[in-house]
UniProtKB/TrEMBL annotation:
One of its GO terms (molecular function) is DNA-binding transcription factor activity. PROSITE patterns: HTH_LYSR (PS50931). Keywords: DNA-binding, Transcription, Transcription regulation. Pfam families: HTH_1 (PF00126), LysR_substrate (PF03466). This is LysR family transcriptional regulator. Belongs to the LysR transcriptional regulatory family. InterPro entries: LTTR (IPR050176), LysR_HTH_N (IPR000847), LysR_subst-bd (IPR005119), WH-like_DNA-bd_sf (IPR036388), WH_DNA-bd_sf (IPR036390). It comes from the Bacteria. Residues 6-63 form the HTH lysR-type domain.
Length: 296
């Protein structure tokens, strides 16, 4: 069989276009013309020896081969970029202060810290896991360099980047899903983090719009307490699919009798418009890691 070496530039264009949902946007981000992007995608398809796109309405969708190609493209690009920074960026020094939500403490933080430490052993990272309000306050006051936080669009910082929109979901104990019948005499039990909480507000707003009576059955300052209460059956809660432990499960609104929920923005805040090289590199690794936990 003929040995094929995929063009990394073509793979980067392909991956960026799928990430942004538009190859015209990818052309702008990568500083290329739309015709150059089209040529790269055609070259990639020729190298693959099989179609990776299929027409879907007015746009394009991935074939099965295209889905496989995208997964490998991301892995190859991650490895390439890590190799470049390990060779060229190992002399970075300094101190980066990172803040993020508890949802990402086990799913994203270990990978980010491990990859960054291997490439830049001379840079110290101070990581802080906190709630949204504290993260925003620390970015604004200059006590954090980077912060990954949820957003409903009501609070912004001068230097922020919307990473993705993540669907919110009702969450109950793992096992057979149950129907949550709520009445005036028996309101829906709701387990929640302490206020202020964007997801708690979204949950109560959705229940109010659906005219479903509810009560706060459990309030916790941490996710660990919230999961314990949910597993114990003290009430349903609301999070996103990211970082759910195996002891809980998403509830399907139609089946569970709960109302549908909107999406929530995920935003990366920077303290400075032009961060130092160490902070900029950590932000890049963070954004790459988030693609691996993006809900389908």
């Amino acid at each position: 069989m003929q040995r094929i070496t995929f063009d990394l530039d073509c793979l980067r264009t392909f991956s960026t276009g799928m990430e942004l949902g538009s190859f015209s946007k990818a052309a702008v981000r990568l500083g290329r013309s739309t015709s150059a992007v089209s040529a790269q995608l055609k070259k990639l398809e020729q190298q693959a020896g099989t179609p990776i796109f299929v027409k879907s309405g007015r746009g394009l969708a991935l074939t099965e081969a295209g889905e496989t190609m995208l997964a490998y493209a991301r892995r190859l690009l991650d490895l390439n970029d890590e190799a470049v920074t390990a060779i060229q960026g190992s002399e970075l020094e300094g101190w980066v202060r990172l803040g993020l939500q508890e949802d990402f403490g086990e799913t994203v933080l270990p990978k980010v810290l491990g990859q960054f430490a291997r490439a830049h052993p001379k840079v110290r990272i101070e990581a802080r896991v906190a709630r949204n309000a504290e993260l925003i306050e620390r970015i604004t006051s200059g006590r954090l360099d980077l912060a990954l936080a949820w957003s409903d669009g009501s609070v912004t910082t001068p230097h922020h980047e919307r990473v993705m929109d993540v669907p919110m979901c009702w969450v109950g104990p793992a096992g057979e899903p149950r129907v949550w019948q709520a009445t005036a005499d028996e309101p829906l039990p709701l387990a929640s983090l302490e206020a202020p909480c964007l997801l708690r507000t979204a949950a109560t707003d959705a229940l109010d719009r659906a005219h479903i009576p509810w009560r706060l059955s459990f309030v916790s300052p941490s996710l660990a307490g919230l999961w314990a209460a949910t597993v114990a059956g003290l009430g349903v809660t609301i999070r996103t699919p990211i970082g759910l432990p195996a002891t809980v499960q998403q509830l399907v609104p139609v089946v569970s009798g709960l109302p549908p929920l909107p999406s929530l923005g995920l935003v990366l805040h920077r303290a400075q418009a032009q961060p130092d090289p160490a902070t900029a590199r950590l932000a890049t690794i963070m954004l790459q890691a988030l693609q691996d936990v993006r809900p389908d």
